[in-house]
Amino acid sequence: MSSLLIKDVLLKDRIVDVLIRNGRFQDIAPGLEEPEAQVLDGRDKAILPSFINSHTHAAMTLLRGYADDLDLHTWLTQHIWPFEHQLTFNDVYIGAKLACLEMIKTGTTFFCDMYWHMPATLKAVEEMGIRAALSSVFIDFGDPAKAKQFRSRTRKFFRENDRHERIIFCLGPHGIYTVSRDSLVWVSEFAREHDLLIHIHVSETRKEVEDCLQENGLRPVEYLESIGFLGPNVIACHSIWLTEKEMDMLARHGVKVVHNPVSNMKLASGLFPYQDMRKRNICIGLGTDGCSSNNNLDMLQEIKTGALLGKSSTGEPTVFPAQEAWECATINGGEIFGLEAGTIAVGQLADCILVDLDHHTLIPRHDLISNLVYSASSECIDTTICNGRVLMQGRKVPGEEQIIQEIKEWEENLKNRP
Ligand SMILES: CSC[C@H]1O[C@@H](n2cnc3c(O)ncnc32)[C@H](O)[C@@H]1O
Ligand SMILES: [Zn+2]
């Protein structure tokens, strides 16, 4: 693999050269030389870790602006699921490519996904050069025939797919209201057997809690604990409607949680208990959720919204400070997915962004992280690098016009579908 040398770039408070070899940061110091390397001019730029979007549904870019302003249950059951029913492998592929393009343009190089036709997202990620954790979807609505189908599909997938340089495969049971108890137990055992992460929606709405209490006499996290589902390999997305007891359970089992502030606000799902989670040292990642409940994949917007919401929902301006919000989108994501990423340091994965320090949103520079969290738009991101490869430079991503064209044609053809 070739090497990359970024010259004279700002890293925290010093100007350095950054040498990348074989997809990792090899050396960081002033005055580095590497005769064969591709050289990037880092003057007037700062190097920072790229973002980790810990929960999304990438190909939902196709549903951007479709069915806005509804609650989760109405949105999913009456609009989203009927629409998704007609999506093909190719639809998901082009939707996921648009998502990858959007992520590269907004500085994200890793996302955790749960969506139909997962191999289509896999193909898009391979081509676009970023990283992902792709979930093998599981959703049976309590139907044993469907459960059987998903189990054999999952077994087959993991027999045929093993390690991948930029992709982690995980399990994606959708939620406790769409996956039967038997199937959740099966997923949990399969994950243990194959050492896999599990990505699941948990306690997103009040309705989910009420239904669970009615059906099982337990709240969602209590129910998951009762079936032996909780563990350090579980990534519980949303995690809004939790009691102190349930948060203690999450902490005890080392469950990781993902905060989705924009989606939670748009669907009016509820308020994520950030302080209560943090107090328990629960690892908190940040995610955009899909493009129909957000409606973009811009992690800078997610970071700012998370930080502001933490304050406005508690009436306490010290809650969710800029540095913590930044860490949720970088280093905490690395911890959730077991990636050596989220910081710029020798030996870490060479996933990073270069921001334009002369951008009007980044001056004056009393505090760069504060500017990035509270002031910046993604327009200040000049360069995105993943695995040591430059995916965007000067805000241009090779092939972006073609992706836009494909989506426009898809939209045109949609009108002619039966
Ligand atoms: C089985 S593929 C994933 C499935 O999840 C749906 N989805 C998107 N956003 C949410 C959300 O916030 N809560 C629950 N489910 C969501 C998506 O449309 C797919 O059907
Ligand atoms: Zn989701």
TrEMBL record:
Binding positions (Zn(2+)): H55, H57, H201, D289
Signal sequence interval, chain numbering: none
Cofactors required: Zn(2+)
Single Gene Ontology MF annotation: metal ion binding
Keywords associated with the record: Hydrolase, Metal-binding, Zinc
Free-text cofactor note: Binds 1 zinc ion per subunit.
Family: Belongs to the metallo-dependent hydrolases superfamily. MTA/SAH deaminase family.
Protein name (database record): 5-methylthioadenosine/S-adenosylhomocysteine deaminase
Organism: Desulfonatronospira thiodismutans ASO3-1
Gene name for this UniProt entry: mtaD
